[in-house]
Amino acid sequence: MRSKSYVTMMDPLQETYGNTMGTLLFLPTLIGDVFWFAAILSALGATMSVILDIRGYLAIIISASTVVLYTLLGGLNSVAYTDVIQLVFMMVSLWTCVPFALLNSATESIYYTAVNEFYQVPWIGKLETEYVGRWLDELLYVALGSIAWQIYFQRVLAASSSRQARLTSYFAGFGCVFMVIPSVLIGAVAVSTDWNQTSYGLPTPNERGESSMILPIVLQYLCPTYVSVAGLGAIAAAVMSSADSALLSASSMLAHNIYRKILRKKATEKEVVCIMRVSMVVFGTAAAGLAFLSNSVYDLWFLSGELVYALLFPQLCCVLFIPNTNTYGSAAGFFFGFLLRLLAGESSLKIPPVIHYPGCSLVDGVYVQLFPFKTFTMLLTLGTIVVVSYLVAFLFKRKVLPRRWDICSIMKESEAPVPLPDIEEQIGLQINIVYINPIEIHT
User: Where are the beta strands (DSSP E) in 321-400?
Assistant: First the structure.
């Protein structure tokens, strides 16, 4: 994608499947970006309310305004430079908090509590056989579903060369592994702590249903004040880094792929930048409003992420790696995948499953799918795109279907004449080969 000088992730999709399909495929990632922005703003508000004892809505408003302002003024340059600073600050701050939490007098050794029940059950846990499919499903969803996002591609496509784009991706992967270690250690510390010895008291965060808030709770009650403030800075840096990327991602795709390529094809660069800035304000305001929904926005983001995994990731794979897929296959895969995901049910939206996959059970009035249905849906979407694309092309070529039914003009594209200069170049190349080969044989 970098070698072909694409601007956004949607460019190859629009180039292969057309603007109409491009617009449909744009919707899941747009919704995902806005919900992601809202989810991390909500997390920041909750963290600040624990550590600084301020109203969460103030943190949300201040953070959203700051992100919108510097992204609005600086664009990709401001996002890139501030992200470097935020990344360094986040790494230093989080790793600084770890030893203070581990050495707190109320905390038992995490090596002992990893396999032995002390204050709570062992923190390593145990993977039950019936949950293996679900764990694999979540693993593939997080690993592969995170690829088809403009947040990633806007960095890769802005690289100075394809080599740098590849190296950036490799280093980012190792960086993610390195940065997850503090989170794991802090979670292990929380399980290994006698909360009765702290001002937090009993019951434990898990028993109070505050497991999602464990990072700010550990920083607040197990670390000195200056360390917890540094940890809060790390969280704020992570939020800002993710939020500005999501905001720029959504606005750039809207301006470049929708406005310039569909709505106004003769738009000037100044118009595109103006549309991008207006959309930043609109998306930032919408995300800040959704952030007040608290837990609901997390459910909505997870659902939109699943749609990107099930619908957009197979489309991107086909465009890049499977030749001759077309608009008919893309549309069939999109609607079939969406229908399959909808029929699997969604507990957060109170949608009961119509399709009960193997292992589906009713737990506390909620259906739980243990079958890896997310990956199953993604694979069926991928297969549908390929099969329908080749089948429709075959039917049109064999004239089983009349050409006038080809509303997407896939046959006109496949039968486009080769330009005359290209033909002359190919003929000249063949003549040279025929002329040179006998000489080489003679010599």
Answer: 361-363, 366-368
